Amino acid sequence: LIEVHQVLTRLAMPAMVVLLLLAPSLFSVVFGSEWREAGYYAQWLTVMLYANFIYSPVSTSFGIMDRQDAGLLLHIGLLSVSVVSIWIGASVYHNTLVTVAFYSVANAVLYLLALVWLHLKAGSTLVALLKPLAASLWRALPMTLPLLLIASFALPPWSVCALGVTGAFFTFLYYLPLLGQLRQQTKGQEGA
User: Fold this and answer.
1) For residues 28 and 33, what is the distance between their CA atoms, to the nearest angstrom?
2) CB within 8 A of 121, min separation 6: which ones?
């Protein structure tokens, strides 16, 4: 559980940081300026999708621990907060973006609570849950900072190229140990 959590956290963190910081700009550049608003929706949905990405593979732990009752309660909770958050956003605020934000944050909180519960039941600690998140966020910043600079300032082409190469270099450094770890695990499984 802990190893899977660490790998998934490291794998998805850079994409999450980029989308949280740059989704409107990226949508505008890739799809055209009329898609900028969709980038704001993507920013909010990124929170939930990141939590879901980390939670989904370890969700089988409910069955392994013979705690399907807890898994059922979580899914009832997810359905409930989804319906309530959409209802609040639509009927109280009458704003689609606010509705998506409520929906995303409410679901992300439940996914994180489920991760906390699973970690504690597996004999892990909150530190073991939060440490990979903080470490991955810290390591993802050098590769996302060049993109943020490119998106935020009108830079000459040579600086855009230099920042792009810098970001690519830090991305390579970020994922290289993770690839080695995955390769080592694959070899260990083949040998067993």
Assistant:
1) 4
2) 61, 65, 67
Q: How far apart are the first and last CA of the chain?
A: 19
Residue recorded with tokens 């606010």: 98
- Determine whether 56 is exposed, middle or buried from the number of CB atoms within 10 Å of its CB (0-12, 13-18, 19+): exposed
CB-based contacts of 69: which residues, under 8 Å, 6+ apart? none
CA distance 106 to 129: 19
Residue 21's closest CA among 5, 39, 35?
39
Tens digits of residue pLDDT in 3-29: 888 888 888 999 899 899 889 988 988
Full-model pTM: 0.83
> Residue 186, CB half-sphere, CA atoms under 13 Å: how many?
6
Separation in Å, CA 96 to CA 48, 52, 91, 138: 16, 22, 10, 32
- Residue 122 per-residue DSSP state: T
Are 55 and 115 in contact by the 8 Å Cβ rule? The answer is yes
> Please, are residues 5 and 58 in contact by the beta-carbon 8 Å criterion?
yes
Instruction: With CA atoms as reference, report the closest residue to 16 among 127, 137, 123, 117.
Output: 137
**Residue 65: Cβ-neighbour burial (10 angstroms; 0-12, 13-18, 19+):** middle
